[in-house]
Amino acid sequence: MKRNFLMIVLALGILGARGFAQDFIQIKGSDTLINLVQRLSEVYMEKYPETAIAVTGGGSGVGIAALIANRVQIANASRPMKDKEYTAAKENGVAPYEIVVGIDGLSVVVNGANPVKDLTIEQIGKIFRGEILNWNQVGGSDMPISLYGRQANSGTYVFFQEHVLGNKDYSPRMKQMNGNAQIVEGVIADKAGIGYVGVGYVYDDKGNVREGLQVLSVAQKLGAEPVSPLIPDNVKSGKYPIARALYQYVNGKPAGAVRDFIAFELGEGQKIVEEMAFYPVAGDYLKQNAKAGF
Questions:
Q1: pLDDT above 80 (res 147)
Q2: Is 157 found in the same domain as 210?
Q3: pLDDT score at 267
Q4: Is there a contact between 243 and 105 (Cβ–Cβ < 8 Å)?
Q5: Which residue has the higher pLDDT, 20 or 208?
Q6: 284 falls in which pLDDT band (50, 70, 90)?
Q7: Cα-based torsion angle of the residue sequence 36, 42, 44, 47 in order, rounded to the nearest 10 degrees
Q8: What is residue 11's three-state secondary structure?
Q9: Could you give the number of structural domains in the chain?
Q10: For 216-258, what is each residue's pLDDT tens digit?
Q11: What is the pLDDT of residue 277?
C-alpha cells in the first residue's frame, strides 16, 4: 500500500508541483500486474515527463469495475473480462478494448522443506477443493495441508478456480490473502503450506527463487511429464499447463497518451516484462493486440 501511495503522490506531484504534465493516466486492478506496471510507468515517466501515471491495485475485478464506471483509463487484469462485465460496460457507454501486455506462468508454490516436487492438475485441484487433506496422499510427509490463496476479487483467484479447480468451490479452509507477496510469505513460514502466485513473485532481488520457497512442476495428467514454469519456453509455448495472459482494458480503441503508453509497454517495455520475471507477448496474442492497433 505504501508503494501505491507513493505512486499517486508522484503522479500528482508531476501534475502540480512540476506543472508541465499535460496528460494523467489512472491505472487500477490486478495485484499480479501492479509491480510490473508500476515499473513500466516509472520508466515511461522518466522518458516522457509530460505524462503522469498513477498505478493502484485492488484486484482485477476492482480495476474492471473502475473502467466500467469510467473512473480509470486502464484496468489491469490477470483474467479476461466476463460477459456480464462487457454488458455492464455497454450499458454505461464504455466500450472495452482488450490488450495483452505479458504472459504469466501461474506458479504453485510450497515450502522449501516439502519433499513433493511436482503434482498433476487434478491433484492440485483436489488439494484446493479440500478433497486431499494430507501431504502423504500425494507422496509427501504425514502432515495436514495448509492452503493459501487469493480473495474473490482477484483475477488470479478466478483463473485458478476455472482452470485448476474445474469451476468448483475452494475449500473453506483456504486462507484468503490480499496479494501474491502475502501468499509467498505465508508459504515460506509454513512447512505444510501450498499456494499459487504469479511467476514474477517467486524470485528475490537477485533473480533467484526465494529462499524457503519451492516452485512445483505441474503435469497435465497422471503419467505426463511435469513441466516447470521457471523455464521461459515452457510458458511461452503453452507447454506449461497453467500459463495465462496478462491483460489491460481501455475504453475504446486506445488513443493519445493512453495509446502511447501501451505502445511503450508492447515495444521496449517488453524487456521490462522479462526483467520482472514475466514473459513477453508472443504467438496468437500478438494477433490479438493487432486488433487494438498494436
A1: yes
A2: yes
A3: 97
A4: yes
A5: 208
A6: confident
A7: -150
A8: helix
A9: 2
A10: 999 999 999 999 999 988 998 889 999 999 999 999 999 999 9
A11: 85
Q: What is the dihedral of CA 88, 90, 93, 94, to 10 degrees?
A: 80
Q: What average pLDDT does the segment 123-148 reach?
A: 98
Helices (H), 106-242: 121-129, 155-163, 180-188, 232-236
279: Cα within 13 Å, side-chain hemisphere: 23
Beta bridge partners of 146: 193
Distance CA 263, CA 183 (A): 32
Same domain, residue pair 98 and 117? no
- Kindly report whether the global pTM for this prediction surpasses the value 0.85: no
Q: Given a cut of 80, is residue 198 above it in pLDDT? A: yes
CATH code of the domain covering residue 274? 3.40.190.10
Residue 21 confidence (pLDDT):
52
Residues 85, 146 within the same domain: no
Res 15 pLDDT > 70? no
- Cα separation, 81 vs 251, in Å, equals 13
Q: Which domain holds residue 193?
A: 107-236
Q: Give the domain-ending residue among 211, 236, 261.
A: 236
Q: How big is the CA angle at 57 (ends 211 and 77), to the nearest 5 degrees?
A: 95
* Cα–Cα separations (whole angstroms), residue 211 to 48, 111, 171, 206: 37, 9, 28, 11
DSSP codes of every residue in 70-87: T--SEEEESSPPPHHHHH
Distances (CA, A) of 14 to 55, 83, 265: 14, 37, 21
Grid coordinates representing 137? Answer: 496422499
Residues 128 and 194 in one domain: yes
- What is the C-alpha to C-alpha distance for residues 24 and 49, in angstroms, rounded to an integer? 11
